[in-house]
């Protein structure tokens, strides 16, 4: 079955601050959440072929949130697009709420993985892309969103080094660059991926048109990374 990105939901981008404002409590990791907001919106609104009623469809695109700490923006976008009820948001982080401080794929409709521990999402995305290839499913795209600090973890560099030569052209990575990595990246983050054979683009992480153009740029035979630069975390 051919599926397309569903843009028919009742909540738009301008509703996201209100939806995020419904989530109160301690340990919200506000900067971590807001750094991802525009990337998540453009992906779910214009790129990903996913919808609440088809979240188990084998033909769907897979979105993996590796940057799982501070998931308020993720939950707000999922609510705006109808994956989770808006009524769940005020209970964010409560003992009996499905919306925890780290997303749980068993509890959150539409979440592909449980996440929050740094360095896990990209290796899982590589495995997902390999699994879809082995199943003879060339159409679903695999997207993973990571933070620049996750590139301090060696597991990500192994995944980067493998995915390029493997030609995983259905694999897409978005790196939120808010200057929180502990170690410098000579030549920039994109250069690390390009050295391993990836297609790469670096854009303003608040510019929706630039993000969309980078997300949809052709990259035949190669995995693709988009580095989305946002304001520094501690600015």
Overall SS class: alpha/beta
The shape is globular
Oligomeric state of shown chains: single chain
CATH class category name:
Alpha Beta
Overall description:
The chain is 30% helix and 12% strand. It is globular and about 45 Å long. The protein contains 8 helices and 5 strands; from the N terminus they run αααβααβαβαβαβ. The chain has helices at residues 16-21, 30-34, 37-47, 72-80, 121-134, 154-163, 189-195, 208-215, and strands at 62-65, 142-147, 171-177, 199-204, 224-229. By secondary structure, it is α/β, with parallel strands linked by helices. It has a single domain (15-229), classed as Thiamin diphosphate (ThDP)-binding fold, Pyr/PP domains (Rossmann fold), CATH 3.40.50.970.
């Amino acid at each position: 079955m051919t599926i397309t990105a569903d843009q028919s939901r009742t909540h738009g981008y301008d509703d996201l601050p209100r939806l995020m404002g419904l989530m109160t409590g301690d340990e919200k990791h506000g900067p971590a959440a807001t750094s991802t907001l525009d990337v998540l919106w453009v992906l779910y609104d214009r790129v990903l072929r996913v919808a609440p009623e088809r979240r188990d469809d084998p033909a769907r695109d897979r979105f993996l949130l590796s940057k799982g700490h501070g998931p308020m923006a993720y939950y707000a976008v999922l609510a705006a697009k109808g994956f989770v009820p808006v009524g769940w948001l005020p209970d964010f982080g409560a003992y009996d709420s499905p919306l925890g401080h780290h997303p749980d794929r068993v509890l959150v409709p539409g979440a592909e993985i449980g996440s929050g521990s740094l360095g896990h999402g990209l290796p899982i995305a590589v495995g997902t892309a390999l699994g879809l290839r082995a199943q003879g499913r060339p159409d679903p795209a695999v997207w993973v969103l990571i933070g620049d600090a996750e590139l301090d973890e060696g597991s990500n560099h192994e995944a980067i080094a493998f995915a390029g030569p493997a030609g995983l052209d259905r694999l897409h990575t978005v790196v939120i660059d808010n200057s929180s990595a502990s170690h410098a990246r000579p030549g920039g983050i994109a250069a690390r991926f390009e050295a391993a054979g990836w297609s790469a683009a670096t854009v303003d992480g608040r510019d929706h048109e630039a993000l969309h153009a980078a997300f949809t740029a052709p990259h035949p035979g190669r995995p693709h990374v988009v580095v989305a630069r946002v304001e520094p975390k501690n600015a």
